[in-house]
Structure of Ribbon-helix-helix CopG family protein:
Amino acid sequence: MNFSVHFDAQTVARLSAAVERVGLTRNRIIVRAVQEWLVKNEAEEWPEDLRDHWRNPAPELSAGPVEFEPWRPAADVSPTR
């Protein structure tokens, strides 16, 4: 499937430098980056404790809080540089 992605000038420059350095095409680098991100961030199923938490109509009565931070989406992909 083809689609369009728009990057800022700094990201394009960094990507172009990576192309020269590793000898892959821009598309191949982008595909690999997305595939790696999905492997790291795609959960097959919600963890049992989280499913139990959402089934409980009165979570304040449960034994304790559910740790949700590890399941927060990694959509906070702001540039680190």
